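Hi V.,

Quick status before I head out on leave. The structure for the redesign project is tokenized and pasted below; the design run finished overnight.
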């Protein structure tokens, strides 16, 4: 079964919840190797999307929701995260197109487009200790699951698990991009906050899909 507008709206609501819940954790992670603004910025951005969900016109698609998130994050989230996540959601929206429902391969394509957008914008590569280190394993897992015939919810579950493993794997890395790279070797031993927020957001996507499937 594909994932429709209900899933997309649930994903945004769950994202706002989970980011608010983990705000302090993200602030702490970013304070260790960055400037400490990641939790605050992400929380402000997702809280700003919530009231706009009520204004979505009838017949809106998952792509419309992703676009709404993109424009809101770009206009409300400062630092590096706003433009990076804004680009991710925008490219994801383009990949989703005007489809009313997204199946496994379509979900994998949305995630791949989002990741490619972040790479293009941030110029980071795998192993640089950035959000890409959560996104790329997530996309690989999603594409593998989709090509094995998994449904959309199972594709998101695979992406979420891989994003968590990827976020954890940033801990020993020495940062080569962003503010954390100024710390050099001292950036090792800390988890990248952007990789952590990526795992939280993809987990929310998966949880929203399980809720849709159970409904
Ligand atoms: Mg920061």
């Amino acid at each position: 079964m594909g994932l429709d507008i209900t899933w997309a709206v649930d994903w945004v609501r769950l994202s706002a919840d989970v980011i608010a819940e983990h705000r302090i954790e993200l602030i702490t992670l970013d304070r260790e190797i960055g400037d400490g603004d990641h939790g605050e910025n992400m929380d402000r951005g997702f809280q700003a999307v919530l009231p706009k969900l009520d204004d979505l016109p009838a017949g809106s698609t998952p792509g419309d929701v992703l676009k709404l998130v993109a424009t809101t994050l770009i206009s409300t989230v400062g630092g590096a995260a706003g433009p990076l996540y804004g680009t991710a959601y925008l490219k994801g929206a383009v990949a989703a197109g005007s489809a009313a429902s997204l199946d496994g391969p379509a979900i994998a394509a949305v995630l791949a487009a989002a990741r490619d957008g972040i790479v293009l914008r941030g110029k980071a590569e795998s192993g640089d200790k950035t959000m890409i280190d959560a996104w790329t394993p997530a996309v690989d897992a999603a594409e593998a699951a989709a090509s094995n015939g998994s449904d959309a919810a199972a594709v998101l579950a695979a992406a979420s698990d891989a994003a968590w493993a990827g976020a954890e794997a940033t801990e020993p890395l020495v940062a080569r991009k962003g503010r954390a790279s100024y710390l050099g070797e001292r950036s090792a031993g800390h988890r990248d906050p952007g990789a952590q927020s990526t795992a939280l957001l993809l987990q929310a996507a998966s949880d929203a899909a399980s809720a849709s499937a159970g409904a």
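Above is the designed sequence. Residues 49 and 68 are 7 Å apart (CA to CA).

G. will cover questions while I'm gone.

Best,
W.
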